[in-house]
Amino acid sequence: MIQEPFAKGRSFLHRADPRLKVVLAGGFSLIVALTYDFTALTIALFYAILMVVIARLNFGAVARRLLALAGFLGLLWLVLPLTFSGETLFSMGPIPFYRQGLILAAQISLKSAAILLALIALITTMTVATLGATLNRLGVPLKLVALLLMTYRYIFVITHEFERLANAAKIRAFKPGTNLHTYKTLAYFVGMLFVQAVTRARRVHNAMRCRGFKGRFYTLYEFLPLGQNKLFIGAIALILSSLIWLEWI
Amino acid sequence: MSDTQTLIDLKQVSFFYPEGPKVIKDLDLQVKTGDKIGLVAPNGSGKTTLFHLIMGLLKPSAGRIKLFGKSMRTEKDFAGLRHKIGLLFQDSDDQLFSPTVIEDVAFGPLNMGQSKSEALERSRKTLAQLGLEGFENRITFKLSGGEKRLVALATILVMEPKVLLLDEPTAGLDQKTKTRLQSLLSKLDLASIVISHEFDFLTSVTDRIHNMEHGRIRTDEALHIHVHRHAHKIGRQPHRHV
């Protein structure tokens, strides 16, 4: 189950207007993704860490999420220095390590850590329901928002259905292995999940029709005026403009 | 509403899937104001199909359906009247799709064209009526099975229906929630059809009980509910007296 452990809190970032948080998260991610300057990237990482500190999140829990990223980055550090040509930094026997690759690996690591931390501090500090309403308010079409919210709602039901299938297999002594029988069984699982998802979608749609659904979604979330967020608006402007200045000007 | 009105009127309705056997066979059914009908229906007797026909989710293969005195033919006919009939689905997960409880309950009223504040007020009132105060911002999928059923009931009651169709409302509920549902339903002054396997529950929330078998509703006297003693064991289990 997705627990939304960071969504509850009383910090400055928890209380800040969700629209501004989404705008900052989007702007920050876009700029950092396009940045290659090391000073700018280091400062971006610093900003992201600062956001996590301000959101007063549990550092252990945040670190565990970074760890998931570390595995992926470790692979890049291993592969990228080997796959470039150009200036060799050092050689290990016959294997050359290229400078260009190492730089790229370092850039990617800084970028992804900064973006991930910023998203944790800004986006996971609201519930998915709030995120949906916010995206809609920012002009994302309701159909896409509904897709996000319904996926979030039914992912648990589908998980539950998968567990039932898995248990049904388990009680009949199914042990996954590397063989055709296993692949076939897993393919049946996936097939069954699709069939069940489709029939459920039909039932849900019927239930919605019974309640007068005519293709329009409504959101009930009430947004407060932005006036109380002057400090936050100023901070967003400062963060984004300083990053742009460092990279491009 | 002192005078009785025929709310639901099914005449000779049949339903079958192409090349399949008849799920519903020449079924007649009338529900009038104040009627509380219980249906005992084994699996595969066409009970859910019957409800879906009444709601216009399925089209009858033959026969005619009248709701509130009007003949129902097209989707448009049904769409305008659906909010007057509240169908409680067997699986509450099918009914609750919004992230939070209040959004789910307000979904119907908003579709009926109410303003946000009206819809919210009515939703809160309905939740309070069912003893669900403080549930507003709960996440729907994190509710327990019993809570889900009660919230699902709120999502249909908020639309102020004239008739309730309850499809196995007690399925999967613990005894405590069952009793709670029982007392809530018997307090409601609404015409209703309740499908259930549970005689105790049916007798407490309905006035008469019919049997549904092979796509028909049997109204034989012999099937009417009555209290009797058993000289033999396991009299609580469904059984036949020969």
Polypeptide structure, described:
Chain A is mainly α. Chain A has 9 helices and 2 strands, in the order ααααββααααα. In chain A, strand 1 and strand 2 (95-98) form a beta hairpin. The longest helix of chain A is centred in the last third of the chain and has 31 residues, at 180-210. In chain A, 21% of the residues are buried. Chain B has 242 residues and is an alpha/beta fold. Chain B has one domain: Rossmann fold. Helices cover 32% and strands 24% of the residues of chain B. Chain B has 8 helices and 10 strands. The longest helix of chain B has 14 residues, at 116-129. The radius of gyration of chain B is 19 Å and the shape is globular.
Can you describe this structure in just a few lines?
The complex is a heterodimer of chains A (249) and B (242). Chain A has helices at 12-15, 18-34, 38-54, 59-79, 99-122, 128-137, 142-170, 180-210, 230-248; strands spanning 88-92, 95-98. By secondary structure, chain A is mainly alpha-helical.
Secondary structure layout:
The complex is a heterodimer of chains A (249) and B (242).
Chain A: H1 12-15, H2 18-34, H3 38-54, H4 59-79, E1 88-92, E2 95-98, H5 99-122, H6 128-137, H7 142-170, H8 180-210, H9 230-248
Chain B: E1 6-16, E2 22-32, E3 36-40, H1 47-55, E4 62-67, E5 70-72, H2 75-81, E6 85-88, H3 92-95, H4 101-111, H5 116-129, H6 145-157, E7 163-167, H7 175-187, E8 191-195, H8 199-205, E9 208-213, E10 216-218
